[in-house]
Amino acid sequence: MNPSNRKNYNRRPPDVLPQRSYLLPATIMSDPELIPHLPFDIALECFLRLPLYSLSTLPQVCRSWRSVLSSPSFFETRRVKGHQTNLACMILASPSAGSSKSPVYSVSIYDQKQDTWAVLPAIPDLPEGVPLFCSCVAVGTQLVLLGGWDPSSWSASDSVYIYDFVQARWRRGAPMPTARSFFACAAEPGGRIVIAGGHDDNKNALRSAEVYDISADAWETLPDMNEERDECKAICCYGKVLIVSGFPTQRQGQFVASAESYDFQEKKWEVIDNFWPEGKPPSSIVSLDDQPYALLDGQLARRKASEGVWQSVAAVPDAVKISAAVTVLSDGILIIGFGGSTQPMGAVRWRAGGAASWESVAVGEGNLSIVHHRACTVQV
Fold first, then answer.
1. Nearest 5°: phi and psi at 121?
2. Checking DSSP bridges between strand 286-288 and strand 135-139, what pairing results, if any?
3. Who has greater pLDDT, 189 or 10?
């Protein structure tokens, strides 16, 4: 093959995938040979299909591969093209701690693509497990654990731990300005983490709120919410973070119907009346395709914004009618739960779309034990 033909072979063929179909920086797109002797578009398609376990090792091969695999836009392109891996993360008692007086909690993950379960490595400086009742949230390819109870003292924690699925390691984040537990936590569309409500060491419900910029590893205090909200839940919906329900100090366990949304431009909270069924804990609420879903009275329900009401979508299978954790997947919702006090923990997923249906998820012996109402899904 003469040099002129070689040059033509490495040029991006216009009839394969045009440059505009990728969401990558120009510095990456300009690399003529990501994989020697392969056209750029074909080489990039190979990278977009890499399995999860390769993403932490291949950046060590060369500078151009590291540039591609460390770019947030690479993972956005992977998501847009449907090649991402959805990892449902939840806080569970470690299988080996079943007979222990005080269970040690860890992060279990369900890989939707491989239909497998695994446990993340322990946090190096937490030999007694992750903080009890900590909150978890996904930001890009990272899992963030915040607050909860210190497993050794059971006092409210201000800790932040971040697991990067690409680098396959834990790191510490800047501590929260306010130690709290049972608070709401969600990532807003720009990737910042909003936390609000919960309670302090004295079981006082909180109105305070803060926002964490994971890229800058910095916190900023937000204005207080209009109401105290202990055991509230946060979702990102309608382009905003919503803090749903909760209860004040003087009305323990009496969940309110209102929610609050924060406007970053106006720098204020807005109360949304009658967003949630009064008296019910909001632990099961999630956002799928920018719509709120929740488990209510044995039904999977969706909130119809135009009418402000919750409408049943499907009856929840008896095997998980007592839910322990709920999170979204690429095409639906994953529910962890059990059918009764004598029944083992199980998992099902609801597939959205024209032929919506329930499917059982194999959990394997010992993969599910004591589950906290804390779950989120990381896309890698």
1. -55, 150
2. unpaired
3. 189
Cα gap 280→296, rounded to integer Å: 8
CA-to-CA separations, 273 to 143, 256, 308, in angstroms, rounded: 32, 9, 10
Render pLDDT for 310-341 as a digit per residue (tens, 0 to 9). Answer: 999 999 999 898 888 999 998 899 999 888 77
DSSP characters over 176-189 = PSS--BS-EEEE-T
Under a CB-based contact definition with an 8 Å cutoff, are residues 350 and 335 in contact? Answer: yes
Q: CA-CA distance, 44 to 35, in Å (whole number)?
A: 8
Q: In degrees, to the nearest 5, what angle opens at C-alpha 128 toward C-alphas 334 and 124?
A: 85
Name the strand (E) or helix (H) holding 308. none
The amino acid at residue 193 is: I
Structure tokens at 380: 């890698």
Chain position carrying tokens 């109402």: 373
Bridge partners, 333 (sequence order): 328, 350
Sheet of 193-196: strands edge to edge? 184-187, 193-196, 209-213, 218-222
The conformation of residue 355, written as its DSSP 8-state character, comes to T
Residue 198 near residue 232 (C-beta atoms within 8 A): yes
Residue 274 token pair? 């009658």
Q: Who's near 265: CB < 8 A, 6+ residues apart?
A: none
- Domain residue spans of the chain: 3-80
> What residues contact residue 183 under an 8 Å CB cut-off, 6+ apart?
135, 147, 195, 196, 197, 198, 199, 206, 232
**Residue that is written with structure tokens 């249906």 in the block:** 357
Structure tokens at 144: 């963030």
Residue at 349: amino acid letter: R
pLDDT digits (tens, 9 = 90+) for 273-311: 999 999 999 999 999 999 999 999 999 999 998 888 999
Which of 218, 226, 219 has the alpha carbon at shortest distance from 243? 226
- Neighbouring residues of 331: CB distance < 8 A, sequence distance ≥ 6: 351, 352, 353
